[in-house]
Amino acid sequence: MKSYYPGLAILCSLISSHGIAAAIDQSGQSLLPFLEVGHYFEASITAADPEVSGRTLGTRSDLINSGVDDYSTDNISQSFQYYSAALKLQLKPQLSFGILYDQPFGSDLEYPVKRNASFSDPVLSQQGTQINVDSQNLSLILGYQPFKNFNLYAGPAFQTIKGHVSLRGLVYADFNGYNAIFKQDAAVGWLAGFAYQVPDMVLKAALTYHSKIDHKINVSENVLGTPLLLVDESKTKISTPQSINLDFQTSITVSTLLYSNIRWVNWKDFVIRPVQFGALSQLATTTMSSGTYTGGFNLDDYQKNQWSATVGVAKQWTPLWSGAFDLGWDSGTGDPASIFNPTKGYWGVGLALKYNPEPDYFISGGVKYFWLGDVTTQNGTYDLPLPVLSEASKVGEFRENHAIGYGLKIGYHF
User: Fold this and answer.
1) Measured between alpha carbons, how far is 232 from 361 in angstroms, rounded to an integer?
2) Are 118 and 171 within 8 A, CB to CB?
3) CA–CA distance, 139 with 130 (Å, rounded to integer)
4) Cis peptide bond prior to 336, omega within 30° of 0
5) Rounded to whole angstroms, how far apart are CA atoms 382 and 332?
6) Cα separation of 370 and 403, whole Å?
7) Collapsed DSSP state (helix, strand, coil) of residue 387
8) pTM for the whole thing?
9) What is the pLDDT of residues 14-31, one digit of tens each?
């Protein structure tokens, strides 16, 4: 069954890409542009407008202030955008080369300053808790087609990451006023995968593995501007997580395409513990436990690995216009969740349109709405082996939040 409208596959990759994923997962690390037929180039921009708010947990009497009635956080999420681009060259019938750029991980949260002082400091610093993470990734891919319809591919991934964190509010107790600036670091990982494709049927199945990437970052730590120097300075190790993507597409009719994506990300092994913060947390747990536990705790970590799935249908109406509709789901990384990621996954629904003014290039755009999962947040000490600490660490509840994502892509076959 020869598909009359092979460009539908490109439309699917647009609408599947702009999500509000678990932890700091951002781009989804799609390899679909590399699997386009022949020479191909694309560039895209994705924007998101989240609305995430919560309130101080009512059971925490130590966070209640006399004369304060409002214990809400207001919206803590900042609108953001990220970019991606891809170039695929079919060098020979059995050999292909690709360059993919994306921004795989990111976060931008800022708790407004509130009189309740739960997640902010309205007195000394007059700031709220903040986290900002920015990453960039450049992958070089070599593909080999040993025989018809099969593609083996692999290559290095060059990644940079930087960010900053500020802890403010009563929820952090003695850590109120802590700041950490993570200076930009570059490191190398790799990816590998294989695909089975039948272009005439727009049939495509691909399995791609992205390795973890180990960064050793110089972190400048202080408390309200005073340098924190409890132990000798050294670099902080942070490993961006390994992941697996499974993509599938097939034509239902000559003008209709079914597509899906399943993604797994190993957030359970992701840990952020700057050197001085770790030393300070060890002092805190030693005092808290009267010496029975001295291991400290992490600035940020996650309880569970992330699973996400998308399934959708794309249809070509005319040679110029096509559209797509999909449903998405994300598991989140556990409940209770980190204050830095106060949601438990999502359900999402998306729409996209593609316009082909000429057969060899297109412009497409899409929008997706997300219902973010309700969750209780904890201050980082949830998993410590101390009596009743798991309940005492719970500090907030976030309910009935949502987000809207937008995407715009241009592509060119040459």
Assistant:
1) 56
2) yes
3) 30
4) yes
5) 17
6) 5
7) coil
8) 0.94
9) 555 445 677 889 989 999
